[in-house]
Amino acid sequence: MKHTCTLTVRSYECDSYGHVNNAVYLQYLEYARMEFLKDLGFDYTSFRKAGLGLVVARVCITYKLPALYGDQLTIVTEPIRFRGAFGVFRQEVFREKTLLATAEVSWFCVNGEGKPTPLPPEFALKELKPSP
Amino acid sequence: MKHTCTLTVRSYECDSYGHVNNAVYLQYLEYARMEFLKDLGFDYTSFRKAGLGLVVARVCITYKLPALYGDQLTIVTEPIRFRGAFGVFRQEVFREKTLLATAEVSWFCVNGEGKPTPLPPEFALKELKPSP
Amino acid sequence: MKHTCTLTVRSYECDSYGHVNNAVYLQYLEYARMEFLKDLGFDYTSFRKAGLGLVVARVCITYKLPALYGDQLTIVTEPIRFRGAFGVFRQEVFREKTLLATAEVSWFCVNGEGKPTPLPPEFALKELKPSP
Amino acid sequence: MKHTCTLTVRSYECDSYGHVNNAVYLQYLEYARMEFLKDLGFDYTSFRKAGLGLVVARVCITYKLPALYGDQLTIVTEPIRFRGAFGVFRQEVFREKTLLATAEVSWFCVNGEGKPTPLPPEFALKELKPSP
Fold it and tell me: Are strands B98-110 and B86-95 parallel, antiparallel or unpaired?
């Protein structure tokens, strides 16, 4: 399953090069993952109230072309691994058909002490698993 | 050569988990690279006036432990590759002796059209090369 | 004329209180002013290429109620003063019918040296003036 | 009592004008208020654990001159009002002797339900009151 969402580059996200600053892409990727979760019905509020959290363990992002003020971006998010407490998303940032950046983001589920803990069944939605 | 700089986590850099948000680390790493350049005498203002830029091509960052409000962080930056228009830094984020995150950041030099171009000799400082 | 735009609160915009951080509201207000300009046909790219800039001179913002992750916000922007190089917007942030914040933002137009300069006629759109 | 702290403008805090973005000043002001509290011995961690919070009610900021990458800024913070649950700080941002921005920030103390509540005596430090 591939999830798609869109956003438009805002003025304050651009740095003195006139480009979206490299750190802002990680905000975009977080936004897209949260949209993915929301759209598949993951109840994030209950998840947090249960004392659980989703933590990013690793990000590898390759920047191919700069994004500019006003660009409409599409972010494609696809789970490529999921097991127990741990998963990986592949995420791609496009301006129309042009690929601007590509990333892999590893995450895990933590309990209230910050220790990795398997996602409880009610949150371990099948869409978090990669398509066979 | 390893360059070291320090910063203290600010309140607004922490997200609803009370942790430094994962995107903020990329800001910290950028800060540390700019400090590195400044401390070795790289004249960034002249560099920009010459129509040149430093662009991040790739970041791989592994988050090991969260940083919290008020933490004093040390960032160690070390060039591990440099040739022509292209280089790589290894960067590590510590709280005292504890390693919180480790990253590799690839960069290249671009001209006014955004094309890769070798660093002119006056900017290609020897400290940008990895120690032998 | 009142201009309206919407946005949804993103996870990374919330601080350790779980609220949208007070600085982020200024980003929202900037976003809404840029949308206002775009929607009335102000050619910001040409404006910048002409060496001109829009600079914020003053912001007074009153925070009434916190905005939370996922909130859909509506921002209403209305010019309440405009003359020569200088203008004022009133901006209000709503969650549905609930007013969360209200602001007045003073701005002026600057030339390449950063000096106030009247907006050239092709940019001094009538919609920048308050309704009579 | 006037409290003083310093910071250096970081690259990613500058927008496409090459200036510190207007929203970033509110982050600087928050940083300076937190430094003020820390330096006078306010135990923010205990304060938060007691279910209390400090909330910004209003900010009026006047921008006089832009701050640029690398600028060393001094922020002067002075309480000008404090009573019960409510207070006001005056804050000024300088580059050496040059005043770049001046602000008044109103705040109040809230309990766990977000209702205004007087600062408990152990947190109502006398330095929060304006000098007579």
Answer: antiparallel
